[in-house]
Design a protein that fits this description.
Elements (H helix, E strand, L loop, with lengths): L1 H10 L2 H30 L23 E2 L11 E13 L12 E15 L3 E14 L8 E14 L2 E13 L4 H4 L3 E2 L17 E14 L4 E14 L10 E15 L4 E16 L3 E17 L4 E15 L11 E13 L3 E14 L3 E16 L5 E13 L8 E14 L5 E14 L7 E19 L3
Antiparallel strand pairs: 1-7, 2-3, 2-20, 3-4, 4-5, 5-6, 6-8, 8-9, 9-10, 10-11, 11-12, 12-13, 13-14, 14-15, 15-16, 16-17, 17-18, 18-19, 19-20
Amino acid sequence: MLETNLESGLVGGDRKFMGRCGQKTLRVFEFFVALVVLFPVGLTAQTTSSPALGPDQGFGYGTSVQNSLKFEGENTPENLVSLSFGAAALYDDNVLSTNADRVSDEALSLNTTLAISRQTKNLKLDFDYSPFFLLYRQFSKFDQLNQSANMDLTYRLAPRFILGLHDTLGYRYGAYPTLIDAPILSGPSSPTTLNQMILPYTIRTLSNMVGLDLTFEKTRRTSVTFSGGYNLSKFGNQTAANQSLYNTKGLFGGVEFKRWATEHTSFSFRLLHHDSTYQLGELFGQRTQTESALFSVESRLTPTLTVSLNGGPQYVHTLDQPSAQAGVGQGFYGAAGGSITEEVRKTALTLSVQRSVSDGGGLYASVIDTTGTFGVRRQLVGRWEADLNIGATRASNLVSQNADEKTDVLLGGIDFVRPLRNGSALHISYATMHELYKGTLPVFYGFDRNQVSIVFDFRLKSIPLAR
């Protein structure tokens, strides 16, 4: 039965799915090549009286912008195009993400990464595209091409107008926790982004999150930001259950007023509308509309310590429900959270907590999501660095509150990094995943999974870009 599910998941819809993903990836790549080539010409016409963009131009909680955790004084490469190759050997003690039919295996991972970093007075662009193969020794049906791409663009259109464009695209086989395999980020994620903590029992996942921001800087201390975007997640056949997963399409829009009270402290008020449609198989669909009024404050208390708090009401309106569930989960909910980030010379750490209405990561439609994350980077002896990332979440189904239907997730990972010559690096990593389901969710009740890997990253080519 398991082999049949795997075969149907990988053969039945792969060509169409990969075709759409390939077209989307090609369009994104062409767009960014054009940006790198054309923007230097357009920037010469901009006025020189406007302030330069900061290294981490973001607009606070409510958008999809999060900053990478850095050491004090650490600078990321700028104005560079690089091509890297990586090879990894790993051991996985639960390839199928199910405790009922637990199978371990070894695998070889091969990947390439194209990265573009571009910064001038009026432009900041970070883009990376990474296709990779994960080749298991026994499970050849997982030997498929995986892809991921990320982009953050900030561009000063005029002395008082700033445009922001953010896009994350992923197409993957198997369960890969985003929290563990991505750089450590500071601050809570936005309620409009897809739920990245839950690991659905699926062979194949396509996800895409896009956000567009336009900021008007009325004065040096006051700004108004209009934002909008969409998110999408689609799932292939499941590995451990006959239960279908919720495919998700979401649209959102909002406006934020931001005021800098001092040089180091800002206050923000944001109104946000989020419209999500969930499709379960071919017969059942559900739609929710979430209205949010969020207040946030962020302050740099010392040169190395930053604290943020946010909160406000959210109203959920449910649509297209079966008559027996009409109105279930509809009403007011409270969103609240905060973060602390400390970045000194040899240690950088961040702690964040957040509770808000979110999507259910494919297991449910809308949920009340309570998440906490902790990340730390520490420089060790001999140029070694240790990166620790831990996250825990509880997702409670809004539609089945009486049944106490929820999912608890605990993720963790540690990565020991040794820089080598010319931008290359050695990684020794361990990752653990634990997921437990409660309530009426049939067949699948959770899993535990551990992975150990050794990774070599080689910088093949670096091309400096003129400012």
